[in-house]
Amino acid sequence: MLLWPLLLLLLLLLLPTLALLMQQRSQDARLSWLAGLQHRVAWGALVWAATWQRWRLEQSTLHVHESQQQALRWCLQGAQRPHCSFTDISTFRNHLPLTKASQTQEEENGEQPLPPTSNQDLGEASLQATVLGLVALNKAYPEVLAQGGTARLTLTSPWPQPLPWPGNTLDRVGTRGTKDPRALLLDALRSPGLRALEAGTAVELLDVFLGLEADGEELAGAIAAGNPGAPLPERAAELREALEQGPRGLALRLWPKLQVVVTLDAGGQAEAVAALGALWCQGLAFFSPAYAASGGVLGLNLQPEQPYGLYLLPPGAPFIELLPVKEGTQEEAASTLLLTEAQQGKEYELVLTDHASLTRCRLGDVVRVVGVYNQCPVVRFIYRLGQTLSVRGEDIGEDLFSEALGRAVGQWPGAKLLDHGCVESSILEWGRTDGAEDTRLGSCPFTGSMCAHGVCSQILLRALLPTTRCLWR
């Protein structure tokens, strides 16, 4: 008979605790609902902004001459360019000579590095690359921009234009505003449900995965101990198991729902993308929202499904000219072309005028026209001028070297090119005098973690002199 009164008394004693738990749960539910609402509102605002920017892009690419005229006028309003009193395109091109980046630095800053471009000087292309790229990415890979679906692994972002709002509201994994690359990697490793990885460039991401292999045990220990965050021993065990199976397909073992890797193309990233795709990021798609240089965003990627490295040259700021590249000769073209004058299949060096300090500056970036969007060219980065091998008087361009190196890799079964460097061999001669193949190994030019994760081999490319050393896996 005393059982029921005792149970009733126990229930009365537990009521305050139960009420507190229910209140906390209700508060967490309200916070979760509020975060979801904020995410939906932010995404709606981003879609609206992308629709507006897409309409502006369509209009500008249909009326290229007028758009480039407006872009030039905006660029020449910079405070650091008081000598440019004319804004007509023809007059501008006829009266001002072409310059090079080194010459611009010397004239503007007394041989000091050029000041970084501020957010206000980035031009409309940077904003278009960001908002159009985010919407296109979400359309091609649904749910990658859902709450907690994306993590950035480097301090730099692949999105050219910072978006204080709604960008911060899209809720990427990681501690906001952190300056510690290790903290970014740990936050990503603690989140097995990621659908997209972001990095400043493919080269930076390559370094991240090399560091992950080198410091994997230390990172697993930090996750297991809860430094930072709550201890996750099971996740630490998954990390150790994934690393034990080697680099091939590592990203998908760590994040089974991963779909795409987002990086910014700064030119010369193709080899890093190929290395990532062949090993750590095998089976994943790569997307670059823009092609950028020191003067700002030069090209837009509007279709994540298309092959990596194709970009539309928009007619907005910065103002872009095209200098024809003559194959097989050192002779320079007499004059530049505008965007509407580009011919498919031809190669051009990009000439840039921005809002800050560059005036008709030859960037050295060579692109090939591979298509047309309305009246604007679609291009692919080919190589950078001035990058030549000239140890013993030869003149081998970067494009020729890359082609020969690719053929050499194809002749080595099972080899994957991670990175390479060219140095003069101080111990190898041009060849043996007895007719035998020279297989002597010289000192390795690579140091640190790169050698620890591959086999350093020296090969003699018959098409190239001097000897080339490469890093293989």
Automatic annotation (TrEMBL):
InterPro entries (alphabetical): GH3 (IPR004993), GH3_M (IPR055377), GH3_N (IPR056985)
UniProt keyword terms in alphabetical order: Signal
Keyword NADP in annotation: no
Lineage top rank: taxon: Eukaryota
Keyword rRNA processing: no
Secretion signal, residue range per the UniProt entry: 1-19
Disordered, as annotated region: 102-121
The protein, known as: GH3 domain containing
Gene that this polypeptide is encoded by: GHDC
